[in-house]
Amino acid sequence: MSLRIVHMSDLHVRSDARLPDQAATLRAVVDEAIGYHPDLWLITGDLYGRTVPHRSTPLERATLHPEVVRMAEVAPVVVIAGNHDDDEDILGLQHLRGNHPIHVITSAQRLTVETMGGPVALYCLPYPTKRSLVGDHPMSLSEAQQAIEERLAGLLGCWRHEIRKGRLECPEMPHVFLFHGVIAGTKMSGGEVMRDDEITLSRADVDALPFDYGAVGHPHLRQELAERCWAPSSLWRNDYSETDPKGWHLVDIAETLSEVTADPFYEEGFTTYREEDDRQACTVRRMLSPCRTFHTIEVEWGDVGGLPGWITPPPDLSPCRDAEVRVRLQVGEAWVGSCPWGELLTAIRAAGAVRLAPERRVIPSQRVRAPAVAAAETSEAKMQAFWETLEPPPTGAEREAAIGALRELEGR
Fold first, then answer.
1. pLDDT for 130
2. CA–CA separation, 231 vs 222, rounded Å?
3. pLDDT value of position 267
4. Mean pLDDT per 10-residue run, the chain (412 residues)?
5. CA–CA gap between residue 177 and residue 161 (Å, rounded)
6. Distances (CA, A) of 350 to 301, 346, 353
7. What is the largest distance, in Å, between two alpha-carbon atoms of the chain?
8. Among 44, 114, 177, 366, who pairs with 214 as Cys (CB 3.0-4.6 Å)?
9. Rounded CA separation 64/59 (Å)
């Protein structure tokens, strides 16, 4: 059999000024993906928002639900929960109606899904937490760590056995691993924050699973995290620090390589895996999404030979067309009155910027008690610098919650 999969992840649909851009991008991606006639849709977590967890708003559901229904009209849809997802909230997707079922997975499990290309075995591991793996039983940190490692080792060992057994019973059936979380060596995109206490899978453990394709969510940066195991990136940029291209994956799995390379793509991002003794052939195609470009302009105004002027060269405004632009100005306190800040913003709008995020940092004439806070260039960096002055500093979970709330506020 031949199986075609559309894999997307980390949508973070949210009710703010970017929602229209997100809705248009999602609609365009689904339109394009439908044209490739997929047999299965995979969404590997973080459907809504940036808070942890996030309960969707009516506007967010009105954006995502119709697109999920359009997916289900074509092929089965499988969604696993991410760290930003509220389990009860995303389970509502199962009540949507299309020609094919919508499966929402909130706990580790194996399931077989019938597709137009035949059955496919899915091994689903939503975002792992202590509660989901070993419950809320009182135990020390070392006891909890040991219990989590034993639980994961047992689960992955069981899945290795099931994949090998499945190959013998039904050699033509593909086996696909779904995971939202961290695999050792994971790289994050831009301003993403990784918690210090996140449960991490070792690459060796993941490599030992002989699946045909691994679909991973959580990092917003596209990367291969283990053999045949990919994160496709988020569908759009969620932060100005995310400058990498965004997109999704079109995956073909078949018993022989000739079945999936009859009409190959030769552009950057096309990866081929030949059939092996314990795996089928697979191709992974990187598909770029038409999401909004984010652009940052950094300028400084101050003393130029005793007169006020631009210390940095005049910015190139051509990348501002159809982009969301962050403008970061640094100006000495003595030169604020002479700075043509308003004229610069007007010029950027005239260059075609869709949205502006102006940030003005005034350098005070007098020294402050916390120079690290004053030197920080963003609100998030100022918070991080301030936390370093506290004793004891906030925990990783407290920092993540505060940063999530700050981003939500700044987004609005």
1. 85
2. 5
3. 55
4. 94 94 97 97 96 94 98 98 96 95 97 96 95 83 86 94 95 97 89 76 94 97 96 94 94 89 61 90 95 95 92 92 95 93 96 94 74 82 86 84 84 66
5. 14
6. 21, 6, 7
7. 82
8. 177
9. 9
**What is the structure's pLDDT at 397?**
83
Q: Which residue has the tokens 């949508």?
A: 11
Q: How far separated are the first and last CA of the chain, in Å rounded? A: 48
Q: Which of 174, 184, 141, 345 is nearest to 275 (CA)?
A: 174
Residue with tokens 């019938």: 114
Burial grade of 191 (CB within 10 A; 0-12, 13-18, 19 or more): middle
Query: Can you spell out the DSSP letters for 188-205?
Result: --TT----TT--EE-HHH
CB 50 within 8 A of CB 407: yes
Q: Measuring CA to CA, how many Å separate 274 from each of 81, 248, 257, 280, 283?
A: 31, 22, 6, 7, 9
Q: Looking at 351-395, list the stretches that DSSP marks H as alpha helix, in order from N- to C-terminal side.
A: 371-375, 379-387
pLDDT of residue 412: 64
